[in-house]
Amino acid sequence: MPPQHGRRRARIAFTDSAAKQLENITSEAEIHALDRALVVISVDPEVGEPIPGSAAGPQLREYADEVERVRLLYWVTALKTVVVVAYLEV
Predict the structure, then answer these.
(1) CA triplet 30, 12, 39: central angle to 5 degrees?
(2) Does the global pTM surpass 0.85?
(3) 3-class SS of residue 43
(4) How far apart are CA 70 and CA 37, in angstroms?
(5) Angstrom distance (rounded) from CA 73 to CA 43
(6) What are the tens digits of pLDDT across the range 66-88?
(7) Per-residue DSSP letters for 9-27?
(8) How far is CA 34 from CA 38, 48, 61, in A?
(9) Closest among 32, 18, 25 to 65, alpha carbons compared
(10) Of all residues in the chain, what percent carry a pLDDT higher than 90?
(11) What is the DSSP letter of 66?
(12) How far apart are CA 48 and CA 5, in angstroms?
């Protein structure tokens, strides 16, 4: 019997501003919190709440992890790549 494979995870990409935010992370706790949130949205990109806005641009979503006190603002491309716009500590 062939091995069962789970659902493929979404690829994560960062805007320039989000990448700049990541450069400023120094503590292990912040890195752990961000990693945890990124895993969640890579497994299920639709987990975040849609942010109301115009239909002209991509549909922004917000994922908040109250345990790790992290919020991610992101959108999902047609090919299921998650593009992180901002990382925020709550």
Answers:
(1) 55
(2) no
(3) helix
(4) 7
(5) 16
(6) 888 889 999 998 888 889 888 77
(7) PPPEEE-HHHHHHHHT---
(8) 6, 15, 16
(9) 32
(10) 39
(11) T
(12) 24
- For tokens 């945890």, the residue is 36
Least confident among 7-11, 23-27, 53-57: 53-57
Q: Give the whole-angstrom CA distance, residue 31 versus residue 22.
A: 9
Which residue spans within 1-90 are E strands per DSSP? 12-14, 49-50, 61-65, 70-76, 82-89
Q: What are the residues whose beta carbons fall under 8 Å from the beta carbon of 36, sequence distance 6 or more?
A: 65, 68, 70
The 10 Å Cβ neighbour count of residue 77 is: 13
Q: Which tokens hold the place of 52?
A: 């109301």
Amino acid letter, 45 = P
56 pLDDT above the threshold of 80: no
Contact 13, 83 (CB under 8 A): yes
